[in-house]
Amino acid sequence: MSDNQYAVSRRAFLRTAGAVAAATAWPAASYARVIGANERIRVGVIGAGGMATNHMKNALRPLQKQNNLQPVMVADCWKRRAAGGAKILGISNAQTDYRKVLDTDADYVLIATPEHRHAQMTLDALDAGKAVYCEKPMTHTIPEALAVLKKQRETKLPIQVGVQGMSDDSYSSAAEAIRNGVLGRVVQAQIEYVRRYDKMGPWRREETKKYVNKPADLNWTDWLGSAAKVPWNPHHYFEWRNYRAYSGGICTDLFVHRLSRIMKACDLDYPRRVVGMGGIWQWPDGRDLPDNFEMICEYPRGMNVYILGTMSNRVGVDHLIRGYRGTLYFTPTGWVAKDKDDKILAEHKKTGGEDIRLHHTNLHNHLRKGEPLHCPADFSAAAVAAVCMANESWRTGRMMAWDKTNQKMVPADTIQTSHFPETSAS
Ligand SMILES: NC(=O)c1ccc[n+]([C@@H]2O[C@H](COP(=O)([O-])OP(=O)(O)OC[C@H]3O[C@@H](n4cnc5c(N)ncnc54)[C@H](O)[C@@H]3O)[C@@H](O)[C@H]2O)c1
Fold first, then answer.
1. Are 158 and 275 within one domain?
2. Most buried one in 18, 221, 346, 369, CB count within 10 A?
């Protein structure tokens, strides 16, 4: 078979993979073997705004040569953005309808649209037989995360979620040390995401003044997707992180990066109980999500994770994990674990980093060689659950719990939860 024939048959496989997988249950390695080590990987881009531009300039363009990557199309519901994205990648194929990307022979699609569009686009991509790199959070809601996970399991197509910090090996290496007992019984972790915004406040943009009227080449209906049909609103389009209909704000935009680090380091899955507290304390400017927020998750292994978040002050706290035997401190170069007298128990110099180029490369290596994904769908669904539970706790004023039997969040006082560890993790 010639290279070209092979490529054609492989891509034909990818297109139909979604349809046949439910019946044939492909093991992950089978999928990986489908893309040859030297064969070009094709990528389509959905969304060409701020983060997608970063991906295109700093990952997809440089990786074309380095990783034998071929961009095939850029779609954005704002035509001028699609055209701008295609120009960055040096291609002419720009479209306004994202579904057009799914009709190409792309092996995977990058989804870099607002949170509320992630789930439908990911489901559509999997149905079209595409692998997916979806920006964080994987989805906007818990039911969406479970639907995406179900589809991912049926199709066996890979999803890499864009928490690029997972391509820093500090967290997997901390997990190994913790499993080996370096910290003794782990009971608590703390981490933060702090910023100090200027007068306009978090996620407000000057462009809203310029686009009081909707640009004629922007498809507002497609941007809204299944969100409530509201007339054009530049604040919603440019500042979507401030509104619950499209985002979870601090929690889903920022905390998901931090929580994922602790989840990986401590082998955490779904939390047992979660509280979220905060408010719209500094910028009561029409936003309906907090500008200052904190959350605490209690996990079944018997530990809490505390996350501090303020947009008013940039003084943070150490990122660390507390155990009975010692404390593990994350540092800019990796981590160090010390006992109560400050004696070093173990340390690690990181390889990799919080880097989108490495994160795409990990997906490429998964497609070619079956390398494990750094931020897969099952892990990402558990992260979505925790941050959505925190937001729901804040909104309702109740502590939320994860109902494992029914796979949903419920008010914590409506189900029985244990006060003891559910695993033997020490
Ligand atoms: N990993 C990171 O560090 C990081 C950093 C920033 C943003 N992000 C994530 O990237 C995603 C996008 O954020 P952003 O800041 O680029 O937002 P943005 O508003 O700048 O860009 C989103 C783009 O998606 C387009 N879009 C929306 N609906 C569409 C549709 N139906 N079809 C085609 N295009 C559509 C919009 O027109 C817009 O150009 C979010 O999930 C965000 O959380 C991640």
1. no
2. 18
CB-based contact 401:273 (threshold 8 Å): yes
**How many Cβ atoms from other residues are within 10 Å of residue 158's Cβ?**
22
The token pair at 231 is: 């007339």
Comparing CA positions, the residue from 90, 120, 115 lying closest to residue 102 is 120
Residue where the block lists tokens 């409506």: 414
239 lines ligand 1 (CB under 6 A): no
Instruction: Indicate the top mutation candidate among 101, 118, 135, 232 to test ligand 1's pocket, ranked by most ligand atoms within 8 A of CB.
Output: 135
Full domain range(s) for residue 174: 169-201+245-352+377-414
Reference 300, options 373, 386, 374; nearest CA is 386
Q: Same structural domain for residues 160 and 175?
A: no
Which amino acid makes up residue 175? A
Instruction: Look up residue 114 and give its two tokens.
Output: 């607002």
User: How does pLDDT run across 45-103, given as a tens digit for each residue?
Assistant: 999 999 999 999 999 999 999 999 999 999 999 999 999 999 999 999 999 999 999 99
> Which pTM does this prediction carry?
0.93
